[in-house]
Design goal:
The protein has 1011 residues and is mainly alpha-helical. It is built from 47 helices and ten strands. The N terminus is likely disordered.
Length: 1011
């Protein structure tokens, strides 16, 4: 024998992937193989590079040559197949290189070599053709109403099994030679299911032949369940069935059921018991009513009675795939027609979705620990993740949408995507992952035709599997990495889709409610609290009309969101706002996908829109902000550093001061919206919300100062600022306690640079201060921030801006007690840092007077407070209901804290703070305030501040007298209650809680402040 071309034979075998090279050399030299194909080494070695297991392929070919070498027909046929580089050789090598079991079948029945040579297809074959093929194998007439085998006993069983494996060879050859096995996979799975159905039909014919009367008194139908029912079967799998039987006219029912049970048992034996040919697979009837404890065969009426009274949730999920496979077709169709209403009504069972979710977790938990990391089917990110997800979505939405009722996983997934129940990208990713997992499962099972769902652990087995799925170059490591990546992706998509909050909410609706049938919708809207059901129906029609994908997704969302709007105090307003928001976002791809797929966004959006007109308006101004609702992290307040970095980027890029200011104000508007949404949702409330609003104001003040100074320099042709500038925060801005209605109280300070003209410096600083107020306070598309300098020396009668020296002189000579009190909240916010430090040092003796307050100053502070109560409270307002100036309100608490600071801050460092609550805590720590008194004051201050903000959030108005008043109106009180987190119908409780809290605080104020 000559030396093979292209190097040594051993080297060539190694290069094409042969593991046991010495054995490979012996097989190439095998007498029988050489007798069939003398040039075997030249012809055969190269093509082995394309098969899954070259070692197995060589061994099978040598065995096959041994049995056909002396056959006048098959020997030359094998030689011609191997010699010619064509389709036949490709099919033969693919099969023997992927399946030791099918290779053994070829060796045992070498005439099947012809199956791999002819052009008859393996997939896409009509079901009736396959059925006739297997019935013919047992001598049964496929056209008979009740086929009965004429080849009986073990010979008939063996003939059926040989016919089965012959057809299986065709399917495997088509599968293994597909240029794109992922695309071919659904056809392969369907062909395997059709072959299984044909085998059941032939087995039933054999079972009939085994009865004296051929079971003539019974109509028996074999119903396919699971993967066989869904036409997505594996190569080796239990075939799940249910048997339904009826007596023929005039026959006794008991006798008919007994005959049906014998037929069912005979059918199962033909498929799975020991005989001359290997068994096919177990026939499993455990999905029948009562499982293994129930009768093997039931009548249609008995099945119906069970499903009406006793069936569990999982049984209806299993029936989704029910399909007649064999036996009496009309009876099978009756059975499926009878069960389908149960299937699509199952979603209305109590806790249906939760039970389905729990069942998936249970299945996962039962996977043995040793197998968990290798499970393709039951484990995390496995096939069951996809199948459970698709089936749950079908069962929830399928009662109102017949287009998604397919028993096939991939077909159903495509239908769900087409109808908008699953995002198209998500469905495409899930389908590819599912196909790849099924491909792995098929290749693993095909190797030895054994039922398994475990990834191999041995390196050699992983290499073989990688080659068989077209990943020869990537090898075992590449295959493992891709599998793990797919598992992660499947689990991520499963968790996103399977645990959607929309699913249990949708399941709780009636079929009419889920379908938005007009009359049912009108009745539901009126019942759950909509004041204008007719108007609501118009909004629903506008959102859901037409055939667009957008309308389809709205039809999924609205049945549930209508209920969520009704959970808020203003469902009509919420629905209207939702319509406007949806229309403004138009065809934006992410919006409806977010609402459908997010765990929280849709319900949160319904809550904020039906609870807060302020948030509704804010979201209309920036609809992209809806994206924040999906994650708490997006609703968390932004740090000052993050906000300023964005503001600085705006100012650096912008050339136009007006444009830059608009962007700055837009930045603040965005943070107002973020904080407001978080506030309504209870994610960020109270002092954290106030701090967020303060940081946003701080950032725009810093930016506005920069813009105004630049403009002033440009107008005057100056290269640098002639005076150092400083903006000092006062009031709630200074204390970090801003609300949605708060102005920015400030002082403007400047300090001329050495050598600068004082007059020019003053004029420059005044120009900057004036411009800041104009830039931030002007009416425009973005919310204004009123910059209020009324707390400056001499109030409105004094100059808007003073030099540092002028402040020093004023505070030294003319400062009044109220100014010292106001300075307790002074905090440099923008401008020259060194000047800010100097200003703080300047005012320290005023706000923290050494030795405390003189008695006369204390009396003056109390006198001013009493005057404020008497004169500034709006006429006609109940003092107990004014949140700011009323008894136990914000002013009461702040004046009390500030008096304690003026009295003791010089001696108690903890009191040197601009924060009201921190000052009260420090007073308690220093023994100046009892713990109960501090708690009463803080509770009242927080409650009143929260209600002021709630007034703005509920009404959408940040100005006007109503912001500071606890309303009498029941609807307004109900709205405020929901904003601050009370349950529905708690407006009266909120009112009483506040009045009680304020009374307690007022009692403390009377004792501590007034003495």
């Amino acid at each position: 024998m000559s030396e093979p071309r292209g190097g040594t034979l051993a080297g060539r075998l190694s290069r094409v992937g042969v593991e046991d090279v010495p054995r490979g050399e012996r097989l190439i030299a095998d007498d029988a193989l050489v007798a069939v194909l003398p040039e075997v080494a030249d012809v055969l070695v190269g093509p082995l590079a394309d098969v899954g297991d070259p070692d197995a392929a060589l061994l099978t070919l040598a065995k096959l040559a041994g049995v056909v070498r002396d056959d006048a027909a098959l020997g030359p046929l094998l030689r011609d197949v191997l010699r010619e580089d064509g389709h036949a050789r490709h099919r033969l090598l693919a099969v023997v290189g992927a399946s030791v079991a099918l290779g053994d079948t070829l060796v045992a029945h070498p005439s099947n070599l012809r199956v791999l040579v002819d052009d008859e297809p393996g997939v896409g074959v009509p079901v009736e053709q396959v059925r006739a093929e297997l019935l013919a194998a047992v001598g049964a007439d496929a056209d008979a109403d009740v086929p009965v085998a004429t080849l009986v006993g073990n010979p008939g069983v063996d003939a059926m099994r040989r016919a089965y494996r012959t057809r299986l060879l065709r399917i495997a050859a088509a599968d293994l030679t597909a240029s794109d096995p992922l695309s071919r996979l659904p056809g392969v799975a369907a062909a395997l299911a059709d072959l299984a159905a044909a085998a059941l039909e032939a087995s039933l014919a054999l079972a009939r032949a085994g009865l004296d009367d051929h079971g003539r008194d019974v109509r028996l139908s074999v119903i396919g369940m699971g993967k066989c029912g869904g036409r997505e079967l594996n190569y080796v799998s239990d075939v799940d069935v249910i048997y339904v039987a009826e007596p023929v006219d005039g026959a006794d029912e008991a006798a008919a059921l007994a005959a049906g049970a014998k037929l069912a048992a005979g059918l199962a034996r033909a498929c799975s018991t020991t005989s001359g040919e290997p068994a096919l697979w177990p026939v499993d009837a455990a999905l029948r009513p009562e499982g293994k404890d129930g009768p093997l065969v039931r009548t249609l009426a008995s099945h119906r009675a069970y499903y009406e009274r006793w069936a569990k949730t999982w049984e209806f999920q299993a029936l989704l795939k029910a399909r007649p496979l064999a036996g009496d077709r009309a009876l099978g169709a009756e059975y499926v027609a009878m069960t389908q209403p149960f299937v699509w009504a199952a979603v209305q069972r109590e806790n249906f979705v939760e039970d389905s979710q729990a069942m998936r977790r249970r299945v996962e938990s039962h996977v043995p620990a040793a197998e968990a990391d290798r499970q393709l089917k039951l484990g995390v990110g496995g096939l069951r993740d996809v199948e459970f997800t698709v089936q749950l979505l079908q069962l929830v939405h399928g009662r109102a949408d017949e287009d998604i009722r397919s028993p096939s996983t991939l077909t159903a997934l495509a239908a769900l995507a087409k109808a908008g129940y699953v995002g198209r990208d998500d469905a495409a990713r899930l389908a590819v992952c599912y196909r790849f997992l099924r491909l792995l499962e098929h290749r693993i099972q095909l190797y030895r035709l054994r039922r398994t769902h475990l990834m191999p652990a041995a390196e050699a087995d992983l290499r073989r599997l990688a080659r068989s799925v077209g990943m020869r170059a990537e090898g075992a490591d590449g295959l493992t990495e891709r599998w793990r990546s797919i598992k992660r992706e499947v689990r991520s998509l499963h968790e996103e889709l399977f645990y959607r909050p929309l699913l249990p909410a949708t399941a709780q609706l009636s079929t009419e409610e889920a379908s938005l049938a007009p009359e049912a919708a009108r009745a539901r809207l009126a019942a759950i609290g909509y004041l204008d059901p007719t108007g609501a129906l118009r909004h629903i029609a506008a959102l859901t009309g037409g055939l667009s994908r957008r309308a389809a997704i709205q039809r999924q969302l609205l049945p549930v969101m209508l209920g969520w709007f009704a959970d808020g105090p203003d469902p009509d307003g919420g629905l209207l706002a939702f319509r406007r928001l949806s229309e403004s976002l138009g065809t934006t791809h992410w919006y409806l996908k977010l609402l459908r797929d997010s765990a929280a966004a849709a319900q949160r959006l319904a809550r904020v829109l039906s609870t807060s007109r302020y948030v509704a308006d804010a979201l209309m101004r920036s609809p992209e902000s809806v994206g924040w609702l999906a994650e708490d992290e997006e609703l968390e307040p932004r740090t000052y550093e993050r906000m300023w970095a964005e503001a600085d980027a705006i100012l650096t890029r912008a050339d136009d001061p007006v444009v830059a200011t608009g962007l700055l104000r837009g930045l603040r508007r965005r943070e107002l919206a973020r904080t407001a949404a978080a506030d309504v949702l209870g994610v960020v409330t109270g002092t954290r919300a106030a701090a967020s609003l303060t940081r946003a104001a701080d950032a725009v003040l810093v930016g506005a100062l920069r813009i105004a100074a630049w403009e002033a320099r440009a107008e005057r042709g100056l290269d640098e600022t002639p005076t150092r500038l400083l903006v000092v925060a006062m009031g709630r801005l200074g204390g970090g306690e801003m609300g949605y209605s708060s102005d920015a109280d400030v002082l403007f300070v400047h300090d001329p640079r050495p050598g600068a003209d004082p007059v020019q410096a003053q004029e420059f600083a005044l120009s900057v201060a004036t411009r800041i107020r104009q830039l931030l306070g002007a009416v425009g598309p973005e919310p204004a921030l009123v910059v209020d300098a009324d707390l400056r020396p001499e109030g409105r009668n004094g100059p808007l801006v003073r030099s540092f020296d002028a402040y020093a002189e004023y505070y030294d000579r003319w400062s009044a007690p109220w100014e010292s009190q106001a300075l307790l909240r002074a905090r440099p916010v923008a401008g020259d840092e060194a000047l800010g430090h100097r200003f703080v040092e300047l005012i320290q003796p005023l706000r923290y007077p050494p030795g405390g307050l003189d008695a006369s100053v204390e009396r003056e502070v109390r006198r001013i407070k009493a005057r404020v109560e008497a004169e500034r409270l709006p006429r006609g307002v109940d003092p107990t209901r004014h949140l700011k100036l009323g008894r136990g309100g914000i002013s009461d608490v702040e004046w009390t804290a500030q008096l304690l600071q003026l009295q003791h801050a010089a001696a108690v460092p903890g009191l040197r703070t601009t924060s009201t609550t921190e000052a009260l805590a420090a007073a308690q720590g220093a023994g100046l305030l009892a713990a109960d008194d501090r708690r009463a004051l803080v509770d009242a201050w927080k409650f009143a501040s929260r209600l002021r903000d709630a007034n703005v959030l509920w009404t959408g108005r940040a100005d006007g007298a109503q912001v500071d008043v606890l309303p009498h109106d029941r609807q307004a009180l109900a709205g405020l209650a929901r904003v601050v987190g009370y349950p529905a119908g708690s407006g009266g409780e909120l009112e009483q809680d506040y009045l009680r809290t304020a009374r307690r605080a007022r009692a403390v104020v009377e004792r501590v402040f007034y003495g």
